[in-house]
Amino acid sequence: MRTVLRRPDFRLLFGALLASMAAESILLLALAVWVKDLTGSDGQAGATIFAIIAPMVLAPLVGWVVDRYPRRPFFVAANLGTAVLLSPLFAVRDRADVWIIYVVAALYGLSYITLSAVLSGLIRQLVPSDLLPDANGALQTVRQGLRLVGPLAGAGLYAAVGGWLLVTLAMAGFGTAAAVVGLLRVAETRPPAGELSWPAELGAGLRHLAGEPALRRALVGYGLGSLVMGFTESLIFAYVDRGLHRDAAFVGVLVTVQGIGGLVGGLLSATVVRRAGEVGALAAGVTFFGPAAVALAYPRLWLGVLALLLAGVSLPLTMVGLNTLVQRRTPPRLLGRVAAASDALVSGPQAASIGTGALLVGVFDYRLLFVLVGVVTTAAGAYLWHGRRLSPPAATPTPPPAHPARIPSPRRPTTPTPLDPAPAPPALGVDHEVAVTTRRAAGR
Prior knowledge:
Subcellular location: Cell membrane
Transmembrane segments: 12-35, 47-66, 98-123, 167-187, 219-239, 251-272, 279-298, 304-326, 338-360, 366-385
Radius of gyration: 23 Å
Strand content: under 5%
Main location: membrane
Number of domains: 2
CATH topology of the largest domain: Growth Hormone, Chain: A
Largest sheet: none
Protein name: MFS transporter
Helix content: over 70%
CATH superfamily of the largest domain: MFS general substrate transporter like domains
Shape: globular
CATH architecture of the largest domain: Up-down Bundle
């Protein structure tokens, strides 16, 4: 991780993302708390989260738009746009204004998809292929660290001074991200126009995911696990109430424990990717969730702490493995569409499982549901592990000799040659038309 942070260009991007992720972390929970405060309804507060997730259905369109423009200026514009779209929240005063929060939440969800898609391509441009796990691992470590303090800080700020300061801080975070990324100097050209019809261009990302064997297995396996992972959002409250016999506020303590595990997972993720490959790291992350869920079926606090630490470790492993795989196995001209489509294919089952879990916990014993989550995620992890050879570990670059031999030249001194970034592995399984346009784009 230190190696990638020594790169000045990535340090700038890292600082920008630190500002935007901090804004994101204080905003998400606070919007739902704001709605709850205005309406007194748990259902309307939960609908705020649904409003953020709903724009995932537009992921193919968002990815297509992202792929039509250079990454750096698009990232700057998207962050500035996100800051501006939060401004209507200053007009919220009472229950009659709740619709403004819903509209802003939906637009923010659209912005989140856009920023994720363009970020994947920007990292690919700035970082050599062999350092992609370190770059993704560094960002996941920060994200997990912010999960420890951001949501609680946002809710606390709202309770103390109201929504105006929260909105101001969030807007400042996104504005700072735009300003810092604007300092990057990246040689970019406008991507070539697509040569297929626009419906075919929209679906190119999904076709690539379906045709590339490693990506296909990753999405199927992780999607299977996601169908039940969301159950735990509701089950953890039953675990604390019925199992540990504690107040619901104790969930915050367990979330903090999970966040500590997330920090550990973020620090280890690059090493796991290098040793097990991207699909192997994803398999490890999904599999770790299995025994963690089963352990929560037995309500003992010490065992619950260990389980949540393990569950925390699993999340960065899955995200770093999946993000690195997408970046390495996707042609640059398709990366926005593939990244957006993969986010949608993972987030969709997760959103459905959160709602399903909320219904099931009222019908079945929460311990049986935890066991079900453990069995399904372990099976999904085994399916992924079986396909780990589809993305074997990358060879470790050979370090240069300590004392390189010099070839004397009486006329022209020898000058060091900068190390070229390692090329990303070629995309496999792209349909014929997309492959043709990719080769033409590469030949420009």
